[in-house]
Design goal:
The structure holds 2 protein chains of 2 kinds.
Chain A: E1 2-7, H1 11-24, E2 31-33, H2 36-44, E3 51-57, H3 65-73, E4 81-87, H4 92-99, E5 104-109, H5 114-121, H6 127-130
Parallel strand pairs in A: 1-2, 1-3, 3-4, 4-5
Chain B: E1 8-13, H1 17-30, E2 34-39, H2 42-51, E3 57-61, H3 70-81, E4 86-90, H4 95-102, E5 108-111, H5 117-149, E6 155-159, E7 165-168, H6 170-176, H7 180-184, H8 199-207, E8 212-219, E9 225-237, E10 240-249, H9 251-272, E11 277-281, E12 287-290, H10 294-297, H11 302-305, H12 316-328, E13 334-343, E14 349-358, E15 368-374, H13 376-398, E16 402-407, E17 412-415, H14 418-421, H15 434-438, H16 443-459, E18 463-471, E19 477-488, E20 494-503, H17 505-548, H18 555-589
Parallel strand pairs in B: 1-2, 1-3, 3-4, 4-5
Antiparallel strand pairs in B: 6-7, 6-10, 8-9, 9-10, 11-12, 11-15, 13-14, 14-15, 16-17, 16-20, 18-19, 19-20
Chain lengths: 132, 590
């Protein structure tokens, strides 16, 4: 069972992604956070054997996406957490930086489309969670 | 010549009174002015002759009472008689002795028994006359001897057959340093100094009769050599065939001649064979002497050139200057004509430089001496040098760089005017010490500059290019691009560092401005990609939802989200626009 978490400060973006994931069958009820620290707190209390897919926005007030990854990296649950970076614009610098984090499995540009959802479902590491 | 009346004083030494009276009678007849003195013994005669000997003649009887040895008597009387002739009176028995007395210096002998007036008169007069002649001869001989002895010129007498000295005068002794006695044991051959003199020829000349003269070198006792001109005449000396020689010491004049000859040789070497052209001319340029070097300098033989006027060969543009210089010799002894052109045989121009000396007061010259030197090559080099310097100056002026020239060995730095113009230092402020320059480099750059300099010192060659900040007189710093070249000696030891300091402050500031612009543009680009794309992505997502999911029940909410996002986007774009405008206007001000 894969739990899907959306972390983004943009309400409209969260609303849209939530809708899309439900329609595409990616997640019936994704967990959403407007700020990253809330997501950290949430993960601390989760079972370390539970698998998570996080769609993480980079630019956020307070703790940004990178800072979130730094903390996640040190958590026990980290090995079962897959992260897809979601940003309104991709630059090379961001991509290079993402490669240094083992949790990051993909990089997507907003807005996330139906095709993006299909790609997630067929991702090598995620396929098994959607085959059932 | 005695005559009957000239006074006559006769001494008669006779012990027999009878014979005395007889003699007195004769004598009175011989001369009316006669004075007769009488001595009757040798002793008396001696007293008379010693007290006053002014007798014209002495009559001596050999048989005197106080005389035993008649030879002794004759000898004594002859000595006492001095100049007076002694006439001996003898008897028959003494004829042989009487004859013998002639060889003892008496004037005549008469036999008492045969004596007559005529005989006595003749004997007395002959005696007196002979004595007079003898005396004259002696005087003349003395005179000659004096002339020989006191002659200021060396004179000597040689025996002809042996070439040995028979006599030398004082001047000879003075000249040679040998004493008279030493000379008398020597041969003339011992004086000869020359080894290559024709000895036998000279000995032949000495042996032969006749006058000769020759030049010869003799060695003095101290080894010094003297040169002599000798004249020699044959004479009979003490009954021997001899030669009297007169020597003239010509050593000094020979030396003077030699010195003159050497001096002439030197002159020839310096003037005639030298590379300088020497001419003697008058104020109108007419030549009276041209040294052979004219062939070398002008390609014209001296014998030919002398027929011309110097002015004909001088370049028309230079002629006035040469003439002016020559005219100045009227008031100045020596004048130098600066470089001028002179025509050669090939109708080409050569540059020469001349020193003129007015030697009209020297009768052996009687003109202006012109010493000229070919300076064509020098002039060409100078021309090239001037052109090269001009080029250098133009380059130096054309560059706005500060040129540095550092003498590594002596720690002396030279700057062009750039140090004043570029950095504002006054001449008085600029020190030629290397440390003065060092301390003007910005402290943050010092280490880097020092490392670079050390590196080319280590390599021993090459160029150095380094940027640093250099302090101006007003305390501000200028950005400098320094290009320096190291000059080393053949062993690679650093001698000089020649460099240019280019002021790149403007370029540096320009780059800084551009970098600032770049930052701004990056900022804009980032804003565009992140801030602009956030609402745009939202709008795209919303529209995508409206399109794909028709069953949506909250379409109105979606549309409202689209409008909100579009407004947000509008605000952002306006912001970017104003920011960009601001950046452009700033850059225009720069």
């Amino acid at each position: 069972m894969l739990k899907v978490i959306i972390i983004d400060d943009d309400d409209i973006m969260v609303f849209l992604q939530r809708k899309l994931f439900q329609k595409c069958g990616l997640a019936k009820n994704p967990i959403t956070f407007k700020v990253a620290p809330a997501a950290i707190d949430f993960l601390k209390n989760e079972d370390i054997d539970q698998h998570f897919l996080i769609l993480l926005d980079i630019n956020m007030p307070g703790m940004n996406g990178w800072q979130f990854l730094d903390i996640l990296n040190k958590m026990k649950i980290s090995k079962n957490v897959f992260v897809i970076m979601v940003t309104s614009s991709i630059d090379c610098y961001d991509k290079e930086k993402a490669d240094t984090f083992s949790n990051v499995i993909d990089f997507m540009e907003k807005p996330i489309s139906i095709e993006n959802c299909s790609r997630i479902k067929e991702h090598m590491l995620l396929k098994e969670f959607f085959s059932a | 010549m005695q005559n009957k009346y000239s006074p006559l004083h006769i001494l008669v030494i006779e012990d027999q009174i009878g014979y005395f009276i007889l003699l007195k009678g004769y004598l009175n007849e011989i001369n009316v002015n006669i004075t007769i003195s009488k001595a009757i013994s040798f002793k008396e005669a001696k007293i008379v002759l010693q007290s006053s000997n002014n007798f014209d003649a002495i009559l001596l009887d050999l048989s005197l009472p106080d005389v035993e040895n008649r030879e002794t008597l004759v000898e004594n009387i002859v000595v006492l008689a001095q100049k007076a002739p002694v006439i001996v009176l003898t008897g028959y028995a003494d004829t042989v002795f009487g004859f013998k007395t002639l060889s003892m210096g008496i004037s005549d002998y008469l036999l008492k028994d045969e004596l007559n007036l005529a005989q006595l008169s003749k004997s007395i007069h002959h005696g007196i006359e002979r004595k007079r002649v003898e005396s004259q001869l002696r005087e003349s001989e003395n005179k000659y001897r004096n002339l020989f002895d006191s002659s200021p010129l060396p004179m000597w007498v040689l025996e002809r057959c042996s070439s040995r000295f028979l006599s030398v005068n004082a001047a000879t002794v003075d000249l040679y340093g040998y004493s008279r006695e030493e000379f008398l044991g020597m041969s003339i051959k011992e004086l000869w100094a020359g080894t290559d003199d024709p000895e036998t020829e000279i000995l032949d000349l000495i042996r032969k009769d006749g006058f000769f003269k020759l030049k010869i070198s003799h060695r003095k006792k101290n080894g010094e050599v003297v040169h002599l001109k000798i004249q020699s005449n044959p004479i009979i000396f003490d009954g021997k065939e001899a030669r009297v020689a007169l020597a003239n010491n010509i050593t000094a004049s020979l030396e003077a001649k030699l010195a003159l000859k050497n001096s002439e040789k030197r002159f020839k070497a310096l003037v005639q064979d030298g590379s300088d052209l020497v001419m003697i001319l008058n104020f109108d340029g007419n030549l009276t002497y041209v040294s052979p070097s004219s062939k070398l300098v002008m390609g014209i033989h001296a014998d030919l050139l002398i027929n011309y006027n110097l002015f004909e060969f001088i370049h028309v543009d230079d002629l006035e200057q040469v003439k002016e210089s020559i005219a100045m010799l009227q008031i100045k002894k020596r004048v130098q004509i600066p470089s001028y052109r002179i025509k050669t045989s090939k109708n080409k121009w050569k540059w020469i430089e001349t020193i003129l000396t007015n030697l009209y007061d020297d009768t052996s010259v009687n003109g202006i001496v012109a010493n000229s030197r070919d300076i064509t090559e020098f002039m060409q080099q100078e021309k090239e040098l001037i052109e090269s310097l001009k080029r250098y100056n133009i380059v130096e002026k054309a560059t706005s760089d500060t040129i540095t020239d550092y003498d590594v060995q002596n720690d002396v730095m030279h700057y062009n005017e750039g140090m004043e113009l570029m950095f504002g230092y006054s001449k008085a402020q600029i020190s030629s010490k290397g440390s003065w320059w060092d301390e003007k480099v910005h402290p943050e750059d010092t280490e880097r500059v020092k490392n670079k300099v050390d590196l080319i010192y280590k390599k021993g060659h090459g160029n150095l290019q380094v940027e640093y900040r250099f302090r101006c007189a007003d305390g501000s710093y200028k950005y400098i691009l320094d290009r320096t070249y190291l000059v080393t000696n053949e062993k690679g030891k650093p001698l000089r560092m020649i460099g240019s300091m280019q002021d790149i402050t403007e370029i540096h500031n320009y780059i800084e401005t551009i970098e600032r612009h770049n930052d701004r543009l990056k900022d804009i680009a980032w804003t565009q990609s992140h801030v602009v794309r956030a609402p745009l992505a939202r709008i795209m997502g919303l529209i995508d939802s409206l399109e794909n999911f028709e069953d949506l029940d909250d379409r109105a909410q979606l549309l409202s989200h689209i409008i909100t996002s579009a407004r947000e986007l509008d605000v952002i774009i306006r912001k970017i626009n104003s920011k960009t405008n601001k950046s452009i206007s700033q850059s225009r001000q720069c």
